[in-house]
Amino acid sequence: MNMNAAQPARENILAHYKENGFAVIPNALTQEELDYLNGIVETSLREAPEQWHQPIEGAVGTVSLLAQYPLEMDRFIRHPVIFPLIQEVLRGEARFAQFDFRDVTADRASSSQMHFHRDISYYGTIGGKIYDPDNPYISTYACVIYYLSDVHECCPAFCLVPNSHTFSSLDEAKEKLGDEYREIPIRGKAGTAVLYNITTYHTRKGGMADCKHGRRTMHNYHSRASSSPLTNWVTVPEALALSDDHDTRMFYSQWTPNQIKYARDHYTKPVPAYYPVHMIK
Ligand SMILES: O=C(O)CCC(=O)C(=O)O
Ligand SMILES: [Fe+2]
User: Fold this and answer.
1) Which of 92, 181, 213, 242 has its CA 20 to 30 A from that of 154?
2) Position 61 in a domain
3) What residue ranges line ligand 1, CB within 6 angstroms?
4) Which domain CATH number covers 78?
């Protein structure tokens, strides 16, 4: 990957996504946006380390910044450059699903390797189809990973197998894709975004032993109005989930059971009656 790549045209980004199940968008975030995000991540790591989970496959992570800065984070979640692309691949039905930050320190870079996997919703795990054959863009859910630090050859890197969403295992993808089988590590400058169908096989490649950078990322998952909630644990702050702005409220309306409980126990306004609040313990 060219570290100084310019941003491809919208139709090229979308054509690449259609053909491969992912697309890379360099310069998705400006330097000012990167400085702001890195600033709040560093403040949180320093002042609220208890909000970050212990390293999982080399990465610490937090979902707490959405609760702390709802309106500011919403501007990244529905980012002017990336959100229109998300809406396109999700047929105009995008719904918020998950938003978190992760950080791999330089000393953990080489032990941050994940296994190849796909991210699947609960219904997908119990027999629901894990992609939409009627959507030219494949996806029932899409995720964007934003690089908040430069990702060099030596750094941990997000890596995908293009067009692997139809296979039931990575081995089957290898066998059936044959010469077409590729594992593509994504490297690029801070501000690069990778937009991907979550059931395209992917992983985090570990960094090299002498990596001096590590890697910091922002992960933003989207569901569709016609998909079920992706997780059963994400929560959304009241300012967004019960916003007076119709589009905002609709975007944050796909509540998980845990979100219903969270709203009941923490919101100032009552939980809308169309959520099964009395069923929730
Ligand atoms: O951090 C990465 O590069 C990939 C993360 C990922 O695939 C996941 O958490 O499911
Ligand atoms: Fe994943």
Assistant:
1) 181
2) yes
3) 119, 158, 202, 204, 217
4) 2.60.120.620
